[in-house]
Amino acid sequence: MEENFEVVEVNICGQIFNLKTSDRGAIERSIEKVEERIEKICEKGKTLSLQNAALLAALSFSGELQRAQEEFETFKDEITSRSKRMLGVMESFLKEKNAEK
């Protein structure tokens, strides 16, 4: 299935970028989050350059992504463990039912 891409001109903290995307809304939401994060960082470190603030924002997002991935893996492991226990219970139940016949 072929996706339809469009080139979108965006302004991020005064810098113009042309981005190729198949989801304009996702790009706009991402830009909003990036600008908010950069603004928060700039408020705390008023002497930071835009480049340094963008780097700190990237590191912040990276940390959030890493934590989310770790939480996902923990959740996935828990679901796998519970599924295996449930399967064992169901198999035991079916064996008992078959033995009664």
Set down the secondary structure blueprint:
Elements: E1 6-12, E2 15-21, H1 24-44, H2 50-100
Antiparallel strand pairs: 1-2
Helix pairs in contact: 1-2
DSSP E strands, number: 2
Number of helices: 2
Strand order of the largest sheet: 1-2
What does the main sheet amount to? 2 strands, antiparallel
Description:
It is a single chain. The protein is an alpha+beta fold. It has one domain. 71% of the residues lie in helices and 14% in strands. A two-stranded antiparallel sheet has the order 1-2. A hairpin with a 2-residue loop joins strand 1 (6-12) and strand 2 (15-21). Helix 1 crosses helix 2. The radius of gyration is 24 Å and the shape is elongated.
Could you list some keywords that capture this structure?
single chain, 101 residues, alpha+beta, two-stranded antiparallel sheet, 71% helix, 14% strand
Task: Write a brief caption for the model.
This protein has helices at residues 24-44, 50-100, and strands spanning 6-12, 15-21.
